[in-house]
Amino acid sequence: MKSVIVGTAGHIDHGKTALVKALTGIDADRLEEEKRRGITIDIGFAHLDLPGPRGETLRLGFVDVPGHERFVRNMLAGVGGIDLVLLVIAADESIKPQTREHFDICRLLSVRRGLTVLTKSDLVDAETLEVVRLEVEDFLRGSFLDAASAPVIPVSSLTGAGLEDLKQALARVAQEAPAKDAVALARLPIDRVFTMKGFGTVVTGTLVAGTIRRDDELEVFPAGQRVRVRGAQVHDVPAEQSIAGQRTALNLVGATTEDLARGMTLVPPDTFRSTSRVDALLSLLPSAKPLKDGARVHFHAYTMETIAEVRLYGMKQLKPGDEQFVQLRLAEPALLLPGDRFILRQFSPVVTIGGGFVLDASPSTRKQPQTEVATFLATLMTGSPEQILEARVRRRGLTGLRLQDVPGEMNIRLDAATRLAKAAGLLSCGPMLVTSGSFALARKLIRDTVEKFHAANPLVAGISKEELRERTRIGPEVFQSVLTTMVEKKELAVTGELVHLPGRGVVMKDEEAESKQIIESAFASAGLKVPALHEVLGGLKVDKARAQKIVTLLLRDKILIKISDTLVFHQSALQELRRQMAAYKAKSPKIDVGQFKELTGITRKYAIPLLEYLDRERVTRRVGDVREIL
Questions:
Q1: DSSP3 helix / strand / coil % (the chain, rounded to 5)
Q2: b/e map of 315-331 (b: 16 or more CB within 10 Å)?
Q3: Most CB atoms within 10 A, among 147, 166, 402, 434?
Q4: CATH code that applies to domain 275-360
Q5: Tens of pLDDT along 381-438?
Q6: Cα angle vertex 334, ends 333, 339, to 5°?
Q7: What is the DSSP track for 285-325?
Q8: Where are the alpha helices (H) located in 457-509, listed in sequence order?
Q9: Cα separation of 613 and 596, whole Å?
């Protein structure tokens, strides 16, 4: 069974609700005030099954919207997910202001199919009906409701005249409407929230994509709250699941009516992120006033609405009838995805001025040249899925884009994102995707930085990984992947935490090599009675900075070993000390400070730091005032 959502549109009191009731037998006016005043205030719903042209069953869900200018915001909450529209025009009044505004809204939302219905045909004579029909056809000429493809159908909800013709036309148009994607990521914009006795919290909406099943866990946006689906209904009938294109009611566990509201959206958990900025293509109506950069507007998308600031790219104002890339800065966070249509209404007085569709719901926060932004957005608008993903990854440069974040950015499933990444020739750096160009640039930056470091620091064996990454400003996952590749290809070598060119040793001048020998000899000959380091360095020919680098090199190569802040020993002296301790253990398993001083011939100044060093090295273990030799 194919499900199609039909929305009504038209001026107040032109018979939209009466037409829906005549077609379906359901009164879509559910509010007491609506029945008392005789006008539609909020959106209402009904449904109808029709036989399709090919013998299949078509299930039509009707969204009936208010026509009064004061309730256009409610009308916008209802038409966001429709597949086709019934533009309703009363034969006794013809085209009125809300006829025009509702029609503009449908075009801006890119509704592609529909029918025009002349209601109240029983109130006018045949000649008047023909005049109105010609007027309406002229108004719609060249649009998606052009009479050449979408005939104008006169009906009377009171007498039933024309209803069968309308049903046949509805079946034909509904059969032509493309089915929504039931295997996509699920998304349900909420249009009603209420409590049902014996069930609890219930929400309704038009499922615009995917499938929602009983017991599914969902996330509420933008709040981030988790809920579980206890039960589902499709057109008032209990169902195990709801698929894209169906009017859906969900009984939820984990949230109250106070937690939920119209404008929120239900989606799979841990997939999307809300946003306060979107880049989009905006079309301004010819009837609108020029739109200035920085103007505040009312923003509507699906069932949500908020205030937005319009930032124009490359111009100070947008002329009526023109279109332009813009950034919309929302007063409140919302869940918006590429391809989502939106409507803008003037801040005051509140009239519809334009609309468009979202290109990027995660725009860059860094300042970019206008040409760069325009090129990127043009790719998002006209490029293939592979080109779009490649552009999104290239934009991330040396940081890369996490594969797990692609579904949220592009509104595709993870398996589709994986296939696209492969088809686009993107490289994986752990969890990150990068372009081959960014990977090559990272290799060059790393090599150049290492070479410059060697040139500036001939006495240092290499640059630390962390310092190298900070200097190149490469993302950690990309850095590690590129470095691993360079080591495998023998472009670089890694010793411990130091990165250096292969075969690169420390390059010393004659006086530096001589100083190194002096330092090493001074400590080697001293045994355990070592001199103060500053005394040894003070007698060298090289300056203090180079002397310290030589010491660092000797410590790195473990020729010298630092055991405290002030004491440095030659490794040969410490090896001899270990031999002495092993020999002493043969006589006694324990040694105190006095015995240690007598064994080594040193003073307490050296004895205590050396014993603490032996404790750290697990040669001894302190027990009270003595050491056990391990």
A1: 35, 30, 35
A2: eeebeeebebbbbbbbe
A3: 434
A4: 2.40.30.10
A5: 999 999 999 999 999 999 999 999 999 999 999 999 999 999 999 999 999 999 999 9
A6: 135
A7: -TTSPPEETT-EEEEEETTEEEEEEEEESS-SEE-TT-EEE
A8: 465-472, 476-488
A9: 13
310 and 326 Cβ atoms separated by less than 8 Å: yes
Q: Is the peptide bond before 222 cis (omega within 30 degrees of 0)?
A: yes
Report the topology of domain 2-176.
Rossmann fold (3.40.50)
Give which of 591, 516, 592 is closest to 559, Cα–Cα: 516
Quote the pTM value. 0.78
Contact 1, 57 (CB under 8 A): yes
Contact status, residue 185 vs residue 95, Cβ threshold 8 Å: no
What is residue 514's predicted lDDT score, i.e. its pLDDT?
Answer: 81
User: In the structure, how many helices (H) and strands (E) does the chain have?
Assistant: 19, 35
CA–CA separation, 30 vs 166, rounded Å? 25
The Cα 349–Cα 598 span in angstroms is 98
Instruction: Classify domain 188-267 at the CATH class level.
Output: mainly beta
- In contact, 117 and 19? CB cutoff 8 Å: yes
Sign of the C-alpha dihedral, residues 365, 370, 371, 376?
positive
Flag residues of the chain having pLDDT under 70: 29-42, 67-71, 505-508
Number of neighbours of residue 218 by Cβ within 10 angstroms: 23
Sign for the pseudo-dihedral over CA of 502, 504, 505, 506? negative
User: How far is Cα 471 from Cα 546, in angstroms, rounded to an integer?
Assistant: 23
| Alpha-carbon gap, residue 620 to 611, rounded angstroms | 8
Fold of 383-507: Arc Repressor Mutant, subunit A (1.10.10)
Report pLDDT for 38.
Answer: 60
Write out the H or E segment, with its range, that includes residue 184.
none
User: What is the rounded CA–CA span in Å between residue 206 and residue 194?
Assistant: 16
Q: What pLDDT, on the 0 to 100 scale, is given for residue 34?
A: 46
Any idea which architecture 521-629 has in CATH? Orthogonal Bundle (1.10)
Residue 557 has φ and ψ, to the nearest 5°, of: -85, 5
* pLDDT attached to residue 36: 56
Tokens of 200: 């609890």
Closest-CA residue to 24 (of 159, 167, 191, 215): 167
